[in-house]
Amino acid sequence: MEIILDAAFLGEKEQAHDYLKEMLDLPYYYGRNLDALHDCLGEKSGLTIIIKNSAGAGEYFDKLLKVFENSCDEVILQEGLEGITDEDFDDSSDGDN
After folding, report:
1. What is the mean pLDDT of the chain?
2. Is pLDDT larger for residue 74 or for residue 91?
3. Structure-derived torsion over alpha carbons of residues 55, 77, 16, 58, reported in degrees to the nearest 10
4. What's the maximum distance between 2 C-alpha atoms anywhere in the chain?
5. What pLDDT shows up at residue 35?
6. pTM of the model
7. pLDDT tens for residues 62-86?
8. 3-class secondary structure for the chain?
9. Contact assessment for residue 38 and residue 68, using Cβ atoms and an 8 Å cutoff
């Protein structure tokens, strides 16, 4: 499975975990922290993460990147936003997630 992420949503902890829960289809019990992310990613086999727009993404992104590198089969960093649209992520939380 291949997932494309926009690092612009990964620089701050709360926003990053909201975004990752939606984009990676993480379970309802996802704990919204790095350990929980590692555990949930470990349950997905054959996962390739492509991260776009990573330059200057922030300190929290660096922590997430380490988790991705340890938990996924492949992590690819690409610059540019080809293939990502505003509709790919709705950051208006309705509290149900």
Report:
1. 87
2. 74
3. -20
4. 32
5. 97
6. 0.78
7. 999 999 999 999 999 997 555 555 5
8. CEEEEEHHHCCCHHHHHHHHHHHCCCCCCCCCCHHHHHHHHHCCCCCEEEEECCCCCCHHHHHHHHHHHHHCCEEEEECCCCCCCHHHCCCCCCCCC
9. no
